[in-house]
Amino acid sequence: MITESHHNDNRGYTRQHRFLLNLCWFFSLLIVGSGLAFAAAPIGKVISLKADATNLFVSADQNLGSTAPLVGDRTVVSTWEEFQVVDAGGGLIALLSVGTGKYVSADQNLGVNAPLVADRAVFNTWEKFQWIDLGNNQIHLLSVGNGKFVSADLNIASTAPLNANRTGASTWETFVWASVGVGGGNSGGLPKHLLLGYWQNFTNGSTCPRLSAVPTSYTIAAVAFANSTSTPGAVGYTTDSGLDACIGGYNDAQFTSDINALHSRGQKVILSVGGASGGLVINSPSSATNFANSAHSLMTRFGFDGVDIDLESGIDVTNLASALQQLAALSPGLIITMAPQTTDVANTSSPYFALALRIQNILTMVNTQYYNSGTMFGCDGNIYTEGTEDFATSQACILIQGGLRPDQVGLGLPATPAAAGGGHVDPSVVVNALDCLTEGRNCGAFRPSTTWPTLRGAMTWSINWDGTTNFNFANTVKAGLNALP
Known about the structure:
Trefoil (Acidic Fibroblast Growth Factor, subunit A), eight-stranded parallel β-barrel
């Protein structure tokens, strides 16, 4: 039997060092569940983990089986050895495997010494860990499910499978982390908090500005909408004739020039697909490929930074996920956002929620439409009515509790009463909702059980309608976003 005290002695674990490690363990037990973080984890970053037990990288290689355990036996870092650090609330973290797109679980219901496996679509207790920083990028991971440390146990196998089964921490319970990138879509090129607005490619009684007139208070302008074509799944883009006339002429060269102008100001421009009258259908492997190829072509031609999915007539989760994954492979780092209706994300089985979880490793942001909805159940089981702060906050927590990262969640509200059939609130109410979810202040009757400081931001329909009030929505909400932690 290999023992920790005799393995890798050259790392110099003195009696005093062991005392300090056990002191860290003692204090970590005191703070787990208290909402306090022992040390700041690199939330949002994609990292590698090297096991001190083997001096090799931890891998979640599912080529070894769909429930293959995490092992510390790889000499280099590739997709299977990459994990995203996710904010699990209350100072805890979850680890999302980039290779599997699923969360690492220490579920001991499968056995007292069941190994860690990256096979969970959402995170709950067994998928939450305390990140305990030891300095010099060394950490311990303490499982919240059983209060024990994760160990790369060489007594089980030479591959050092990871188990959460140790009451104390030493060499085998120590891991060295290193950053290999930022996950969740094109998060690296976006601010911590942002405002997305839809720029209407049609006229409906609102304003009709050129794209270059979009204020810098909008981080992302989503051009609404792409056109479906005669090829199943494929999309195109042409400027609406009514908008062209309202602007006084707006050709492709001018449109492209305006996208470049926004880029020069640090703004992003994405192409929205769908809308209330959108006829796009992606329901087969061939239509998925057609979508990916055509969307990539439009991104290349006009300079779009990504796509927004706003299909309101039902979606095929499997094929739409495939389409977006293919597009992400063609356009690495693209922005992918969604604007589902409330009923489409009511629970993890709802179509948009299922889609978001399936593509979480490439998803930037979900902006649920908290309008045109009526009443809905909140995450606390109570019923809330649209047009209130409580409606937005109680709905947003459903997404986070269901497995989306807080930085993938935004609040979607109409810019003016005329922009929607119902659900409008004053922009100051949107700011209060953001304050409530991120800091626990300015809440209404609903108060979340924890806060999410990395909540991404807000969305509005639309920039054109906001222009009718001299951009009151953008000015107010952006100021609120700038004040968030």
